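haha ok so turns out i had the wrong file open the whole time. this is the CORRECT one, sorry everyone. sequence first:
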Amino acid sequence: MDPLPATRPTISLAASEAALHPGASRLHLRGDLGWVQRFTLAAADVVEGVRLLPLGWTLGWLDISLRYRGSALGPLWLTISTAIMVAALGYIYGTLFHMDLASYLPFLSVSLVLWNAGIGAVVSDACATFLQSEQTIRSLRLPHFVQVVRVLVRNLLVMAHSIVVPFAVFAIYHAWPGFAALWALPGLALWTLDAAAVCMLLGGICARFRDVPQIVASVMQVAFYITPVVWKPEQLGARGWWLPLNPFHDLLDVVRAPLLGHAPGTLVWQAALAYSAALCAVAWIMFARTRPRLAFWV
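then structure:
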């Protein structure tokens, strides 16, 4: 007799919706939701996820602990690898571009840390926001926004270990930004909002279409080279008129410029806010559309 086929545990859409919106009608629970109901349930999910912020923090901390379990230095390897990369690229590109290391290394260290531990890492991690929590989503009645918080906390801890390198470079070259660095706080707040939006957007899309992470990785690789990370914007001269059209440049500069001791331009802030508003709008629509089906896609 053939063995019984293995079955995967399933969670009904009705159960997941009822957990967050007990008063929903049977029509809504079948998945035939109108946009008003979708937005209402998505808002309830986010509110409940914010209420469970300590749980999201604990899950993110646990992810970092498990990632470096058995390691002697643990997350300090992030600091060491970042320092090695900054030193190597600083020497190579500083020589190629004939740059003064006293001004180039602070720029490079801040740019690499913000890109690798911030923008690049968040976008890459966002693709697996819900996929990596398959068992949790299928077995527990938790708001999906908890998984978004989990990703944000995990990347925040990674950045906290990497940000030590730019401060060391500032100390070596006496390039402290002073109180101007406080202007990076609004930029970081904008980054947090954008990071949550990226997780809500890419998390749902990648749960449905498993080829999207490879596409995102290719796009981010190209974005790294066309964004002033290892090269300075002033090196383009008058040919750099198109930089404000690059959303990665604008979002990077609202945090990087204050850390280097000067405020970002008004045009940069206007572009960053416009791109962020568009991203949040698209992410909210996509999250409201995909959220009821995540339990079946992961």
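The two ends are 32 Å apart (CA to CA).
again sry for the mixup
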